[in-house]
Each structure stands twice: as C-alpha cells, then as structure tokens.
tRNA (Guanine37-N1)-methyltransferase (Methanosarcina lacustris Z-7289), 336 residues
Amino acid sequence: MKRQCIKIPKKKGESARRVLLDFELLDNSLKIGLDETFLYLPLSREPLSHELADLPVEAELSEFDFEPQEKKPTPQDLLGFNPAYELIGDIALLEDESLDSQTASKIADVLLLAQPNIKTVVKPLTPVIGEFRLREFEVIAGELRTETVHREYGCRYKVDLARAYFTPRLSTERSRILSWVKGGDTVVDMFAGVGPYSILFAKSKKPLRVVAIDKNPDAVRYLRENITLNSAKNIDAIEGDAREEAKRFAGTADHVIMNLPHSAHEFLDSAVLLTKPGGIIHYYGMTHEDDLFESSVELIRKAAEKAGRKIEILEEKVVRSYAPHQYNICIEAKVI
C-alpha cells in the first residue's frame, strides 16, 4: 500500500528511525522499505515542522509502496471483544468503572500479554472529582504504580495519574491549538496541569513566552519536572489560583487556554482580563447536544461586556463526545 514516508540514505536510517519512534511517527504496521541506496520509513501521521527539523538533514518526505507487517494477535482477537482503555505512557487505564473484578483481571492479563509496551493496568474507582480533577485507582495487574512518562508529539510528560489529571485523548486538540499560535506570541495556560499544552507550545519555539498556571501543587511539581525533561524554554510554571495570577499578567496574552471544561465559565472574567486587544480565548466547555455553543458564547460575551470589551467568534468546534448527549466543545473568541 502506498503511504507517506521518510526517505533517508541507509547510513542515516537508524538515527532517523529513532527520531520517528521518539515522536511516535513510525507506522509499525508496515515493513520498512528499502532499495540499493535508501530506506523508506512509513509514517503513522502527518509530521509537524519541529518534528521534521529533528531528523537528519538528508531526510525528505516521500511516498513508497509498503508491505504490511505480519499481524500479531490483538486484545480483541484474544478476548472476543475490544476492551475500552486509554494508554498513558506504559499504563493502560480501563475506561469502564463498572467492570467486575474477574472481567477486569482477564482484560488486564490479555493487555499485558498482547501489548509488551504496557507494564501496568489500572481501573478507576471514582469518576474525576474535586478541585484538582482527580480519581482514585486500583492496580489490576503489572507493576504497582500510577506514575509513568507519556510521549506525545515529541514531548515527554511525567505524571502520576492519582495526583494530577491527564488524558491523551486531547493530543490532536493540543496540536490544533498550536496552529493558532504565531511567532512572538504570549500564551497563558490558566489550568496547565503537568504541561501538555504549555510544553508543546514552548518546544515549538513559536511563543515568546508561555505562562503555565495550576493550583494543584503535585501537578505543578510534575510540570516543573517536565519543563526540565523537555528542555523547554520561555515558560514560567506558577502554582496559584488563576484568578489571582490573572491580575499579575493582565493584558499580556495573545492566547488564553481555558482547558477546564466543567467550570471554565467561572474564570471568564479573569480570561478577559488576561487577553490583550485582539487576543484569543480558547474556551473549553461541556454542553448538551441541544445547546452546543450558544449559551457558552453568551457567557463569553457577557464577561467581555462587563470589562467594556467585545468579542468576535472565530471558530466553534466539538472536540469529543463526553457522555450520552454531552460534548466537550471549544470556542475560539477574539477579544477586542
């Protein structure tokens, strides 16, 4: 099958392969192609500019007719159904909280057998609750831990799932928001967590400055570790309440990230305060299918009017389904 790939001289093939693995760009379902001079490394997705920049200078985007790898048994093959789980680093997080112990244990054993990259399988005991959006977990199988390092778009995020909220499901969304950021911009991430938005932005070398704020001391500790882990520059990690920190950075932000979908509306006054004229608020919410955007837009508009300002809606997007008839949405609003 014809697929996009990296064409690289054979002598540089291993170094290019390692870069693609680091960025999770190598499509392992296909055999690496070769001819007398070049290797052809199949890509799993469209690479970002900073990812291409890390490849050897001889690398170029191309196409090649690849052969599929011999298929190994999948969890679905072994179980007879497709288990629902998130993969965070080397931890598989079972998504169904109602699973009985026997079924959960069977799924965990199969995941460890079929997916060598999985070292721990956990089951949530509670939904996401509390000010810091945390859950309690039970380790079903594998190593007794909830800490891992997750790789995404060439960044590494160390996180303890029991101490700081993290989901890999927003990886594409984080890349989408990055596309809005221009060279020299200042970005304020009001609810930064361990840094998946902030560090991606800082590593892209687009923003002049990233201000990453979170109230959870454990999240900020991991955020600071991740800044070092990723050699990220021009990023400030701040432990504090976003409302109070907004007063310090009033009128400085070209972009304000509000990824706290259940309660971001409570912080809209502070987001408007942060945003410079012409700056953009990236507002996340949880809404019903009967009112995906209208009520949220009105909340943003009222917050702007309270400050004597106006908004222009640039984009409205459904990010993902969250629950029956409930959706995680994002609204890009320019504050004038």
Q: What stands out?
A: Residues 101-114 form the longest helix (14 residues). The first strand starts at residue 2 and ends at 9. The chain has a mean pLDDT of 95.
